[in-house]
Design brief:
Blueprint (H helix, E strand, L loop, with lengths): L1 H8 L7 H14 L4 H15 L5 H13 L4 H13 L3 H28 L3 H30 L5 H17 L7 H25 L1
Helix pairs in contact: 2-6, 3-5, 3-7, 4-5, 5-6
């Protein structure tokens, strides 16, 4: 099943174990801001530069990892590793090894930050990182909208945007989990499609 998916969806599914490992280490060390901030970098390498996977793969990964609990960056890279490598133990090993440098760096920075760096400097660093993350996410959102604009009509497109925005801003934790809004839209689309199919049969 997995091999079938790889052959069907990947553009050039021939990366080596070491090339995937080095890329994941680079991504985990250089990108900050959580899973969604990592996806533009993952897309830049895996889709645009190396052509390992397609834009549709990235879209699927983005939706799936945001719909389930856990760290979306690790989940996304795990999905890619299993998608590209035929050996499951190699995919697991890639993920294990790629997380070690990032984990070590985190503890080193945490120790240095809490021991030697005044809190006001950390606030400045945090304030500088946030706009970069926002720009990356906006850029990815614009790309997605341009690609999907022809597939959704105007009303559905903006209905999803408005409801999702209101859901994000006003629904409190833990009910603000992405899975709830995804299930809501799946139900809505199923209802709309069912009504449309009934109308087509009558005509």
């Amino acid at each position: 099943m997995l091999n079938h998916v790889v052959m069907k969806k990947n553009i050039n599914p021939n990366p080596t174990f070491w090339k995937i490992l080095m890329l994941f280490i680079k991504v985990s060390l250089l990108a900050f801001g959580g899973g969604n901030a990592l996806f533009p970098m993952i897309k830049n390498y895996c889709v645009d530069k190396y052509h390992w996977i397609s834009n549709e793969d990235i879209d699927d990964i983005l939706v799936i990892t945001n719909a389930i609990p856990g760290a979306s960056a690790i989940e996304g890279m795990t999905y890619i590793a299993f998608l590209l490598l035929k050996s499951k133990w190699k995919a697991c090993l890639v993920m294990l090894l790629s997380m070690i440098p990032h984990t070590i760096l985190f503890f080193v920075l945490f120790y240095l930050g809490t021991t030697f760096i005044p809190i006001q400097y950390l606030k400045v660093i945090y304030a500088a990182v946030i706009p970069v993350i926002i720009i990356l996410l906006i850029n990815m959102s614009i790309r997605y909208i341009k690609r999907k604009n022809n597939e959704l009509n105007f009303f559905i497109h903006w209905f999803i945007f408005v409801i999702t925005l209101l859901f994000t801003l006003f629904v409190p934790v833990p009910w603000s989990m992405p899975i709830f809004i995804i299930v809501f839209f799946v139900i809505c689309l199923v209802i709309v499609q069912t009504i449309k199919n009934k109308k087509d049969k009558r005509e």
